[in-house]
């Protein structure tokens, strides 16, 4: 489990930071009041990041920063004042960034910066520049932000890397490159990957005002003129990636069911259609339709809030049992799963194991036990259209309901029950 250490001697400021950290950081956070206390914590824990006050009662000259640097902990500094000497000193020491303690928004910025840095870990960034010196400089600054960095010496090489590796989330591209310049690179990759998948920052040593406008029009999110200050580079990169993260969250929320957090009907149809067309192992794919038995009785007996709790609990169990599958709530008490199995018998067995698990598990609401069972219809995914496969699974589910519920039916041309209680 990753941890963050925050060192701050002001009681008021530490209270603000504790509140914000609880909101934004989903990992363990340790707080220290002094250099001595921080040193003790470092001896017992390994920290992914540190946020430290530059001036402490027992460390008036930034000794706490040196402590973090010696322990190889990426560090963000809080300071009430900054001059050019201190700024250069912190850059030379290798701190990620410094934040002036002006107001509450400064502390929010600092905590959100830590959250973004934690997300950066493992994220891949491509630097495209024909100058090895420039690539090395940007690599160092990006690695300081905890990114994984790959390089390309020209536009064609960068385009090939981007087409082959969808895990690259940020492209920093120089304008003047051999074979393919930055404009053409941005234009070409935007035909393949949208702004919700890849962020682009254009870079140039030219001070031409038209360059930034052209880069934006060709698909870039931002633009930087060389030479740039480390702080400007860090801020532009972090803001661009924060925007990408926000777009991702909005897009994901639009694809999720509001209650269960499973994928919704619209997204399920889109992704299931894609899997049917592109999955090379589609002969091993199956579609299951699940329905909660007598769900209306649960609502009538225990109340709609209890019914919602059953839906949420069942959704969580579905995700736990089928973590690598496309799972969705289609509406009401009906769910769908697209999954892989070796053959028809294996598919039937997988679903019946889940049905058996649910029927032998006691759900609860407000300390009231609620018995739940499900009926399941399965159809094999062959060369049929998605609508046809869903219709087949739905017919099998209808048959399972008609034969007494709490059972699994596998669709065949003459629908019949393969496994029932």
From TrEMBL:
<feature type="domain" description="Response regulatory">
    <location>
        <begin position="3"/>
        <end position="116"/>
    </location>
</feature>
<dbReference type="Pfam" id="PF00990">
    <property type="entry name" value="GGDEF"/>
</dbReference>
<dbReference type="GO" id="GO:0005886">
    <property type="term" value="C:plasma membrane"/>
</dbReference>
<dbReference type="InterPro" id="IPR001789">
    <property type="entry name" value="Sig_transdc_resp-reg_receiver"/>
</dbReference>
<dbReference type="InterPro" id="IPR050469">
    <property type="entry name" value="Diguanylate_Cyclase"/>
</dbReference>
<keyword id="KW-0597">Phosphoprotein</keyword>
<dbReference type="GO" id="GO:1902201">
    <property type="term" value="P:negative regulation of bacterial-type flagellum-dependent cell motility"/>
</dbReference>
<feature type="modified residue" description="4-aspartylphosphate">
    <location>
        <position position="53"/>
    </location>
</feature>
<feature type="domain" description="Response regulatory">
    <location>
        <begin position="124"/>
        <end position="241"/>
    </location>
</feature>
<feature type="domain" description="GGDEF">
    <location>
        <begin position="283"/>
        <end position="413"/>
    </location>
</feature>
<dbReference type="Pfam" id="PF00072">
    <property type="entry name" value="Response_reg"/>
</dbReference>
<dbReference type="GO" id="GO:0052621">
    <property type="term" value="F:diguanylate cyclase activity"/>
</dbReference>
<dbReference type="GO" id="GO:0043709">
    <property type="term" value="P:cell adhesion involved in single-species biofilm formation"/>
</dbReference>
<dbReference type="InterPro" id="IPR029787">
    <property type="entry name" value="Nucleotide_cyclase"/>
</dbReference>
<dbReference type="InterPro" id="IPR011006">
    <property type="entry name" value="CheY-like_superfamily"/>
</dbReference>
<protein>
    <recommendedName>
        <fullName>diguanylate cyclase</fullName>
        <ecNumber>2.7.7.65</ecNumber>
    </recommendedName>
</protein>
<feature type="modified residue" description="4-aspartylphosphate">
    <location>
        <position position="174"/>
    </location>
</feature>
<dbReference type="InterPro" id="IPR000160">
    <property type="entry name" value="GGDEF_dom"/>
</dbReference>
<dbReference type="InterPro" id="IPR043128">
    <property type="entry name" value="Rev_trsase/Diguanyl_cyclase"/>
</dbReference>
<dbReference type="GO" id="GO:0000160">
    <property type="term" value="P:phosphorelay signal transduction system"/>
</dbReference>
């Amino acid at each position: 489990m990753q941890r963050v250490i925050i060192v701050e001697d002001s009681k008021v400021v530490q209270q603000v930071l504790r509140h914000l950290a609880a909101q934004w950081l989903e990992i363990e956070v340790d707080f220290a009041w002094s250099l001595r206390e921080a040193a003790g914590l470092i001896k017992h824990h390994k920290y992914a990041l540190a946020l430290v006050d530059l001036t402490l009662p027992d460390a008036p000259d930034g000794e706490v920063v040196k402590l973090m640097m010696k322990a190889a902990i990426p560090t963000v500094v809080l300071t009430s004042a900054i001059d050019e000497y201190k700024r250069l000193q912190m850059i030379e020491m290798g701190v990620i960034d410094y934040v002036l303690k002006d107001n509450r928004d400064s502390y929010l910025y600092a905590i959100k910066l830590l959250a973004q840095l934690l997300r950066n870990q493992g994220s891949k960034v491509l630097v495209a520049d024909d100058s090895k010196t420039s690539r090395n400089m940007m690599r160092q600054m990006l690695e300081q932000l905890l990114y994984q960095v790959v390089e390309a010496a020209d536009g064609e090489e960068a385009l090939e890397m981007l087409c082959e590796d969808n895990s690259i989330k940020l492209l920093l591209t120089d304008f003047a490159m051999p074979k393919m310049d930055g404009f053409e690179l941005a234009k070409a990759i935007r035909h393949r990957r949208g702004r919700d998948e890849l962020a682009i920052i254009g870079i140039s040593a030219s001070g031409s005002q038209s360059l930034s406008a052209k880069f934006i029009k060709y698909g870039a999110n931002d633009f930087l003129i060389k030479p740039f200050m480390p702080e400007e580079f860090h801020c532009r990169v972090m803001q661009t990636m924060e925007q990408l993260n926000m777009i991702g969250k909005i897009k994901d929320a639009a694809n999720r069911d509001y209650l269960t957090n499973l994928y919704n009907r619209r997204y399920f149809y889109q992704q299931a259609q894609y899997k049917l067309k592109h999955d090379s192992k589609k002969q091993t794919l199956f579609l299951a339709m699940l329905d909660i038995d007598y769900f209306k009785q649960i609502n009538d007996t225990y109340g709609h809030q209890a019914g919602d709790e059953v839906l949420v609990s069942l959704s969580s169990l579905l995700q736990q049992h089928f973590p690598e599958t496309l799972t969705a709530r289609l509406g009401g008490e009906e769910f769908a799963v697209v999954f892989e199995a070796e053959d028809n018998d294996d598919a039937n067995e997988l679903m019946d194991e889940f049905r058996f698990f649910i029927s032998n598990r006691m759900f609860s609401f407000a300390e009231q036990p609620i018995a739940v069972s499900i009926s399941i219809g399965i159809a094999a995914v062959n060369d049929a259209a998605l609508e046809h496969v869903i219709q087949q699974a739905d017919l099998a589910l209808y048959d399972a309901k008609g034969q007494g519920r709490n059972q699994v039916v596998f669709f065949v041309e003459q629908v019949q029950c393969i496994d029932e209680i």
